[in-house]
Write a structure and sequence with these properties.
It contains eight helices and six strands, in the order E-H-H-E-H-E-H-E-H-H-E-E-H-H. The chain has 243 residues and is an alpha/beta fold. A six-stranded parallel β-sheet has the order 3-4-2-1-5-6, with helices on both faces. Strand 3, helix 4 and strand 4 form a beta-alpha-beta unit. The protein is globular. It starts with 10 loop residues before the first strand and ends in a 7-residue tail after the last helix. The N terminus is likely disordered.
Length: 243
């Protein structure tokens, strides 16, 4: 039986891996790869909006990335501040709504203020929701959700936990992409990716362009999303457009 093709994914999540290796191969400092990665993200945001994707979630800085050399962590923080100042006005004009997802307690007050200001500025936009996971980890997300429910005296059920997670404002990702050739999700969206289609690209993130995105979308379109049902049941269901 032929597979029922999936529509364009409503929500794409991306582990943007390979910035450091991209720089190393060019005998450049690792931060040069991160800067190039910002350019790739800008390109990806535009391409997703053009293709009808409504939510894009990217893994920018994990809770484990604090273990990297202090010089690199400091450079990443500076890059975040620079990117906020440079990119947010353009994102706002493009109708992108920003959400920064992760633990803000460990961030400097100036950084936290910048994140909040970017969210407030873009709050009314509806073209694309961009979730930037910064100081984020999937285990942290589940733990903080459970803690909030326990403190409120709310019974912890699958439904209540789902509503307390950091990405409760958007549906779960349909497609999760990881670049850089590694085939793991590295503590990213552990709960939300339970039924996501996975796509692993050998391209390093700074080299991930529109053609690479289209390759992932084509692979997704060939998947049959059954969610526990049989192929016959899926084939019998009326088709619905994404979005």
């Amino acid at each position: 039986m032929a597979k029922t093709p999936a529509a364009v994914p409503h929500h794409i999540a991306i582990v943007m891996d390979g910035n450091g290796r991209w720089a190393n191969r060019r005998l450049l400092p690792r931060v040069a790869g991160h800067r190039q990665g910002v350019d790739s993200l800008r390109r990806c945001i535009r391409a997703c909006a053009q293709r009808g994707v409504r939510v894009l979630t990217v893994f920018a800085f994990s809770s484990e990335n604090w273990n990297r050399p202090a010089e690199e962590v400091g450079a990443l923080m500076e890059l975040l501040a620079t990117a906020l100042a440079r990119e947010v006005p353009e994102l706002d004009r493009a109708g992108v709504r920003l959400h920064f997802v992760g633990d803000r307690e460990g961030l400097k007050p100036k950084v936290r203020e910048g994140l909040a200001a970017a969210e407030a500025r873009t709050a009314a936009n509806a073209q694309l929701v961009l979730n930037v996971c910064f100081n984020y980890g999937g285990r942290w997300d589940i733990a903080q959700a459970a803690r909030r429910l326990a403190e409120a005296g709310t019974p912890i059920t699958e439904q209540s936990l789902n509503g307390a997670l950091a990405l409760a404002h958007v549906p779960d990702p349909d497609l999760l992409i990881r670049t850089g050739g590694e085939q793991r999700i590295s503590n990213f969206l552990l709960w939300q990716a339970a039924y996501s289609e996975l796509f692993f690209s050998d391209r390093l993130w700074p080299d991930f362009d529109e053609a690479a995105l289209d390759e992932a979308l084509a692979a997704y379109a060939g998947r049959e999303r059954r969610f526990g049902k049989t192929s016959a049941q899926v084939a019998a269901e009326p088709s619905t457009a994404a979005g």
